[in-house]
Amino acid sequence: MTTAEVRSAWPDHPGYRIEATPCGHTAQVWFGDVLLAESDRCLVVTETDHIDRLYFPESAVHWEHLASSDYSSVCPFKGRAAYWNLVAADPVIENVVWSYRTPLAEVAAIAGHVSFYQESLRVVVLEHWPDGSTVTIAFPLWGDATELRRLIDVVPTGAGHFLGPAHGPTRRNVVEGGQLLAESVVAASKTFVGQRVTSASMIFVKSASFDAPVNISVETLRRGRVFSSAHVRIAQDGVLRSAGIVLADSGADDVMRDVEPMPDLPGPEAAVPFAGFGMTGREIRVVEAAYDPDPDRLGPPVIDAWVRFRDDPGEPYLRAALLAQSTTHWTIAAAMRPHRGLGEARAHITLSTGIMKADVAFHDDVDITEWLLYSNRAFWSGRGLAQGDGRVFTRDGRLAASYTVQAMVREFAVEPAAMGRDSGTAM
């Protein structure tokens, strides 16, 4: 069957969407330490109900590592696909590369391009920062740090009311608790103008999704000359998602100052780049590569990570909010490290995981374009929960913030598929 003989489904499904847009970054495909493809002219193909794929120009592929397969398939929206096996692997990985050599007219842009199963290979994009550094980010991408900043910079809609914009469809359509924590910091900062948020404590009662906005209400408990406090509630589609308390103050000179010392750890140059989370504009380096999805790699319940952003958001409260957003990344993974057979790779697939409560206190102002050390430990796990705390230090040893996190880690009572969910929607 040729593409000309493929019965197109486009007339029957006018709402179906396939878009091919330039990636904007250099992209690579790796199998171990073998480079399979590299190009700065890739296309990101976004398709209804499918994960994003990168399509590489045929000229960018190292074909010596591949061999043509007898297998082919037909997509009623794209046409007939030819496949290649990865002969650089032992044993050979079959049908890991494909191409629509003569695609249907609606997706003509992918002609002359090939794609790779990122589930079996390592697909990354390389972001070149203004300071000359190159940051590696795993594909598919969630988006850029400027989009995260847009989401947390909530917009006033009336006295005590704010709107957090929607992000749009994404592979995992669940907003992380750290983002809601950050939005509460921004909403309180815009309520108590002239004061600095010093702490926020939020519980997360139901997950929020990226494809709809959130409504934030700030009920002032007390607006004082020195201290102010507020009750913050975050809802989506009329359903409460998060609630908590935020404290702000006007600042004062030191009466005393005593600071916990920064742990003696390797700096970011010696830490291992972490390509996960799929966000350009933010770089993460993990000490001793401790954030590892491998369920059989054991270690202490500790993760130390260096984090920095490409761009300064300008406002101090946005710097604090972006700092807070990253505090909820680590506790679950740290708690799993001592336990064989557990790992982040099982999250949302066989394990139900999520952040239930987060508290953050801000101690010193920071420049988020400089390296910050998130030093995390999970000090208790059991009864389906994990508890952890952490500190955020500047490169020169100042304690910028501290936080505690309570998380859920338990087996699914019902498999996600039986609930009509998958790893993109299951907690």
From TrEMBL:
<protein>
    <submittedName>
        <fullName>Acyl-CoA thioesterase</fullName>
    </submittedName>
</protein>
<feature type="domain" description="Acyl-CoA thioesterase-like C-terminal">
    <location>
        <begin position="259"/>
        <end position="408"/>
    </location>
</feature>
<feature type="domain" description="DUF427">
    <location>
        <begin position="28"/>
        <end position="119"/>
    </location>
</feature>
<dbReference type="Pfam" id="PF13622">
    <property type="entry name" value="4HBT_3"/>
</dbReference>
<dbReference type="InterPro" id="IPR049449">
    <property type="entry name" value="TesB_ACOT8-like_N"/>
</dbReference>
<dbReference type="InterPro" id="IPR007361">
    <property type="entry name" value="DUF427"/>
</dbReference>
<dbReference type="Pfam" id="PF20789">
    <property type="entry name" value="4HBT_3C"/>
</dbReference>
<dbReference type="Pfam" id="PF04248">
    <property type="entry name" value="NTP_transf_9"/>
</dbReference>
<dbReference type="InterPro" id="IPR029069">
    <property type="entry name" value="HotDog_dom_sf"/>
</dbReference>
<feature type="domain" description="Acyl-CoA thioesterase-like N-terminal HotDog">
    <location>
        <begin position="174"/>
        <end position="240"/>
    </location>
</feature>
<dbReference type="InterPro" id="IPR049450">
    <property type="entry name" value="ACOT8-like_C"/>
</dbReference>
<dbReference type="InterPro" id="IPR038694">
    <property type="entry name" value="DUF427_sf"/>
</dbReference>
<dbReference type="InterPro" id="IPR042171">
    <property type="entry name" value="Acyl-CoA_hotdog"/>
</dbReference>
